[in-house]
Amino acid sequence: MGLQSVKNCLWLPCVLRTPKACFWSTAGGGLIIQSVSNDVYQNLAVEDWIHDHMDLEKQQVLFLWRNSPAVVIGRHQNPWQECNLRLLRQKNIKLARRRSGGGTVYHDLGNINLTFFTTRKKYERMENLKLVVKALKALRPQLDVHVTDRYDILLDRQYKISGTAAKLGRTSAYHHCTLLCNADKFVLSSVLKSPFKGLKSNATPSVPALVKNLFEEDTSLTSEMLLDAIAKEYAMQHQIDHHITLINPADETLLPGISDKTKELQTWEWVYGKTPKFSISTCLNMVYKDSVLDVKVNMDVKHGRIEVCNIDLPEQWLPPGLYSELVKSLTGSKFCPNEITALVTALLRVCPQDDELHSRWSLLCENMIRLM
Ligand SMILES: Nc1ncnc2c1ncn2[C@@H]1O[C@H](COP(=O)(O)OC(=O)CCCC[C@@H]2CCSS2)[C@@H](O)[C@H]1O
């Protein structure tokens, strides 16, 4: 079944009922839905919505979704430690923090995401992954794919094609996983490299792996074929019809409260502010008038904000008043280039207009901002 034969929203005729009743009135033991959006925040919000609103005792759900380029970190991770934030900004790649634990992955349209929603009691990652492997094998029996004991799916015994994470609620749960079809591996590896040295934290570290795209192994495969094969296998195991119901995550009528969920996932406070406390101890090698100046910088960052800040500048390099103003305004600020740029620009404005001071200040600030 291609996308053209995908049935439109099954619950459209029942928008006047409560959302729960609405989902309820669809197929018996399960529902397969696919997002029409490629926005990572909207799609993660759909996960939250289903987790919070649906009665998964009555029917389990498989949610299929793909995102435009994004890096997705785990709930307890540190984005500065996990990826190259500067490169993400340059390339316009979104950064999202999901609610499940685990490591950092790269998404683009060449990567499929699958979310298996069940009650907490019925949550079974291995079964879900075996279902995916079975679907792949049904499509291409010669594929050498298997599930590892850390719930990755490997191709040819060594290449990761799928990573897993999960969220267990009080009564509901979901297990979601990726499937690399033809993602940009060059971008994947370059954005998942942190330039940071000297960062200390208790955040969950990712477990880097060699990755491969399924389409490298078989060029005749398409994402639609894979989605369809997975939907078929899921439908068979749940004894439901294998129609894929399209869902629009921007539809407040169908998913009341979804836009607030989407907005929350986009906030700085969620993406960066939820980072476990960390400290940075680094040395800025600043080239000034043909010599290299080593400036030690130590910072403690809590909730994404600078809590303690020490910059070890040579004496008299900056007027002492300006130095203490700098440290004072950095303390409490977001560890974020935009915020720091605004702050140092404002500080310089109240300083004497001296060329020498100006170039020293710019050099220091540029180096500090590059850290973030
Ligand atoms: N898209 C994708 N798929 C599989 N493996 C990937 C991907 N991107 C990066 N990687 C590799 O996995 C490691 C991190 O492995 P690690 O085991 O640390 O983390 C994971 O696997 C998390 C999977 C989360 C899945 C969610 C499903 C929907 S939203 S995100 C990374 O360093 C790369 O080497």
TrEMBL record:
Matches recorded under PROSITE patterns: BPL_LPL_CATALYTIC (PS51733)
Q: What class of enzyme is it?
A: transferase
Q: What is catalyzed by this enzyme?
A: (R)-lipoyl-5'-AMP + L-lysyl-[lipoyl-carrier protein] = N(6)-[(R)-lipoyl]-L-lysyl-[lipoyl-carrier protein] + AMP + 2 H(+); N(6)-[(R)-lipoyl]-L-lysyl-[glycine-cleavage complex H protein] + L-lysyl-[lipoyl-carrier protein] = L-lysyl-[glycine-cleavage complex H protein] + N(6)-[(R)-lipoyl]-L-lysyl-[lipoyl-carrier protein]
- Enumerate the Gene Ontology biological process terms: protein lipoylation
**Protein keywords:** Acyltransferase, Mitochondrion, Transferase, Transit peptide
On whether Amino-acid biosynthesis is a keyword of this UniProt record, the answer is: no
Listed under GO cellular component are: mitochondrion
Q: Name the principal localization, coarsely classed.
A: mitochondrion
- Pathway this chain belongs to: Protein modification; protein lipoylation via exogenous pathway; protein N(6)-(lipoyl)lysine from lipoate: step 2/2
Q: Does the keyword Acyltransferase apply?
A: yes
Transmembrane regions: none
- Documented EC number(s): 2.3.1.200
Which segments of the protein form a coiled coil according to its record? Answer: none
User: Where is the protein found, in the record's own terms?
Assistant: Mitochondrion
Checking InterPro entries in the record gives: aa-tRNA-synth_II/BPL/LPL, BPL_LPL_catalytic, LipoylTrfase_LipoateP_Ligase
A Gene Ontology molecular function term for this protein is:
lipoyltransferase activity
Show where the BPL/LPL catalytic domain sits: 56-242
Q: What does this protein do?
A: Lipoyl amidotransferase that catalyzes the transfer of lipoyl moieties from lipoyl-protein H of the glycine cleavage system (lipoyl-GCSH) to E2 subunits of the pyruvate dehydrogenase complex (PDCE2). Unable to catalyze the transfer of octanoyl from octanoyl-GCSH to PDCE2. In vitro, it is also able to catalyze the transfer of the lipoyl group from lipoyl-AMP to the specific lysine residue of lipoyl domains of lipoate-dependent enzymes but this reaction may not be physiologically relevant.
Recorded family membership: Belongs to the LplA family.
Q: What is this protein called?
A: Lipoyl amidotransferase LIPT1, mitochondrial
